[in-house]
Specification:
Largest interface: A-C, 112 and 112 residues
Order of helices and strands of chain A: HHHHHHHHHHHHH
Structural class of chain A: mainly alpha
CATH topology of the largest domain in chain B: D-Maltodextrin-Binding Protein, domain 2
CATH topology of chain A: MetI-like fold
Largest sheet of chain B: 6 strands, mixed
Family (chain A): Belongs to the binding-protein-dependent transport system permease family.
Shape of chain B: globular
Order of helices and strands of chain B: HEHEHEHHHEEHHEHEEHHEHEEHHEHHHH
CATH class of chain A: Mainly Alpha
CATH superfamily of the largest domain in chain B: Periplasmic binding protein-like II
Number of domains of chain A: 1
Number of strands of chain A: 0
Pfam family, one (chain A): BPD_transp_1
Radius of gyration of chain A: 25 Å
Main location (chain A): membrane
CATH superfamily of chain A: MetI-like
Protein name (chain A): Carbohydrate ABC transporter permease
Strand content of chain B: 5-15%
Chains: A mainly alpha, B alpha/beta, C mainly alpha
Number of domains of chain B: 2
Oligomer: heterotrimer
Strand order of the largest sheet of chain B: 2-1-3-11-4-12
Subcellular location (chain A): Cell membrane
CATH architecture of chain A: Orthogonal Bundle
Amino acid sequence: MATLSTPAATAPEPASHRPAAPGRSRSLNRRTREAIAGYGFLAPWIAGMVLLTLGPMAYSLYLSFTDYDLMSSPNWIGLGNYERMAADPRLASSVLVTLKYVAVSVPGVLAFSLGVAMILNKGMRFLPFYRAAFYLPSLIGTSVAIAVLWRQVFGGDGIVNAALGTLGISGQSWIGDPDSALWTLVVLNVWTFGSTMVIFLAGLRQIPTDLYEAASVDGAGPIRRFLSVTVPLLTPLIFFNLLLTTVNAFQAFTPAYVVSGGTGGPLDSTLFYTLYLYLRGFANLEMGYASAMAWALVVVLAVFTAALFASSRYWVHYGDER
Amino acid sequence: MTSTPRPRRLAAMIAAGTCAALLAACTGGTSVGENPSGANSGETVDGTGPVEGSVRLAYWGSGPRIERTQAVADLFLEEHPEVTVEHENADFAPYWERLNVQASSGNMPCLTQTQGRQLNDYTTRGALLPLQPMIDSGAIDVSDIPEDVLDTGRGLDGELYMIPYGAAYDAVVINETLAEEAGVGLPEEGYTWEEFGDYLREAQEGLPEDVKAANLGGGLPNYFIAYVQGTGQDLFDGNQIGFDEQVLVDYWNFWEELRADGVTTTPQQSSEEPDQTEQRYVAQGRVMVDNLPGNALTPAQTTLDGLAPGQQLTSVAAPWGEAGQGNALFTSGFSIPANCDNAATAAAFIDFWINNDVAGQAFASDNGAATNSRHLDQQLEDPELPDEKQHELGLYQEIVEREPVSIVYPPGYQANFEDTFTRHWDSVAFGEASVEEAAHAFYEEVNAALAAESTE
Amino acid sequence: MTATATSTDRAARDHSAGRSRPPRQIFGRRVVRNRLLVGLVRHATLIAVLTIVLYPLLWMVGASLRPGNEAFGTLNFLTSNPTLENYREGWNFGQLNFSRFFLNSLAVTTLCVIGNVVACSMAAYSFARLNFPFKRIMFALMLGTMLLPYHVTMVPQYVLFNELAWINTILPLTVPKFLATDAFFIFLMVQFIRTLPRDLDDAALLDGCGHVGIFFRVVIPLSLPALGTTALFTFINTWNDFLGPLLYLNRPELWTVTLGLNGFLDATGESAFGPLFAMATLSLAPVVGFFLVAQKLLVEGIATTGLK
């Protein structure tokens, strides 16, 4: 019978921890066989890394120390780009914009997708239809049509203002005002919550229902069931979604590009970090500077990822613990 | 995956990264950014030679533009059946993005469409071939193109890098119907900016509640160029700004005062307005006057017909300044990149496009008036030419007769001037800076950026 | 934890005593009798929320059914004179049919889905279940590839593909998928696979399966939700990808749907918004279809781990 295991603080054990085989030669053989299998299954990835990823990545790191402008040979300028970054007011403002975006949209997306996933997890009629319907916004989220559609919603004559009008409030152009433009993008990010929701749904489906039954028979109400059954078993996916949503939010580009027409306006209020990076690289032809910006972002994200991984020891429960 | 102490994992990542970086820097990847001249470094290419093989033709536009371009290409292929033309097209903004990536690996198409505004981004980096040798050798015949129109294709060094085929201008588009209802009619020829302001204020009194006389124009670079041209000052002096700061201050004050008087749209409304003609307020009947590209008259009218049937749009020249007319010409044309391996065919194609009468008719001045004056006359004489097109081409001829000054844009114009202009105007319009502060900040930022651009 | 022992014991006792258990208690102490009312309220709420969430899409569909130059006239998504003109016009896009773009998109997307599912599941199995030298470094490296914005590797990769003469083919878009370059999915599947207890692995080992056998007989069947998710997301991402096709598919015959849609926009001339909305609506169809198919696999796949 399945038991609710206590939160284990142990790390997942290496797979080679098996009942010792008689004779040293046999266990070495097993370890070698496992390593061969490991590399074998990893072969496509290794090929991809070596051929397609490592080279361009390393080259872009090199470019961050040059003044490459896409058309002439790159000249080494050492830390010049990084020094300019430290003194660039637009870069500082783009960092602020991005941080605001991450801080609000990540919790928003996670809460919303988990909420909807939980509602949809109960057996109900037309469930597949609802699931697909809530997923629809994600399907069109990056399309060129989004710029037009979002203006229909948040523009000066959009539906939001029409709705506010019926309540007697006169709204403004949410997209055209520097104070509110960023929040329309946050809403856009939450609107495309479909992928996160689907992942949560898949995870919720894997939680055995008898656990819920057992807990409810014991007198646990819905909230207690959620906290003691759902959340602990969902932690690997919460971890995954938290990490990915945050990384994606830091790297957000398309929503800002499409809605602001590629400018990050009005008044740089939607100038996300990667949008600014893109403009410096491809519009100003300062690819070296853009590469420096990109690698600075990598460092920040790497620190964040490492911190998240380190913390996961305390709150994520994997099924492969012993 | 959590028991490795952090420092050890970070160190491993750094080690891996450094090894890879050293490897890559030493061995591969050096072809990036190498002299993109490739096939033609050192020799003068005069465009003579056999017309054969295949060329790639890159241009921007959609729908009707694509059809017309393909029509011309097909006509060319009829004359040269052994040639193949591969089309590459995209919308305006992604077009340059892709072109830059192609340029970085010496892969620009042999027939690259360019504009004066972006031209010098490429010429100062040696990415384009000088075309004078091809004219001298007779491969391209430009005798029907007016001299000052042809000059718009010159780079900073005075060499010709682009053969302009279409000359566009920015016009002041007015909703005639609304103007008459407001009792102001159209401005007279030779109207100044001051008269323009009075005209708008008067119109606003007679317009319905939710229609504004003008769209806020402080952030439109082309509108501003017209203003500068009117003062007689230069837009650029080499790679620095050529006009006085006061000119910009006056221009922005002009619009700020109109805005304060309630004659224009709000800054929020104007910053929300998309670029496509169909979504501009003047095409939807929400403002009476705005600055649009001359060839936008036709799609704007079509849109207006759907939303406010019966209303008529027309276009007039930009206001005059003390030194004369404000309108400048913005030309589009073809360039041949230095990495092109089939310059002869490319030259023949350009020559065909510019000079062949049937081709001229097929394209019908879709991207600005045909620079070939013979073609222009032929089109104007065509009885089947739609009214709006007739008006657009007629206005073009008037502008050319007044000998507009040709502007040479320094490299980085689009990124450093246009975007900065809008951004600093926004800071004025949204109340974050005074006109003087913003103008000064703009001046410093643009000059610094343009100077940095040229030393690379 | 003895909760389960207690409840099962109680259930067993009740059963053996011939007593039926009291009705399940929901909503606190009161038993709700009128299930129909609850169901109706829930459906009504969901539909109301859905209408708000889907409003932009509904507007777009409505605009696609309006004549071209009336596209922006109203906020409503119902129209008084519906027309299919936009669909016809959009389909016959210039000299090429939009059907060509759909086929191209389908080809690229299918290949990408297959590539990702195969290559990423293999890599994920390796990271999640097997041990080998340098495993931790490589895992960190894999995560690291997700952190770099793609714009900066775009140019070196373009140069690389240019040297290989792969421009104007679908190879730059599909081959990387077969080489597991999408770290997102490797990571996703690692997380999924790690939720599977190892007892099944051990059972298979005892049965004489090698690692390959475990992969095919234990891990894959139980990871169907993860594989389904990978397939679905890959499909959607590839279907909606604009930058990749923009750079590598220059000839209009090779265009995918996203390039085709962008082809309706022209900031310098005439845009065709009616056909744009029509084709954008149509382009949703395959993605929705794939989603409906995949979601069965995804969510109704394998239920419990069957460890009892």
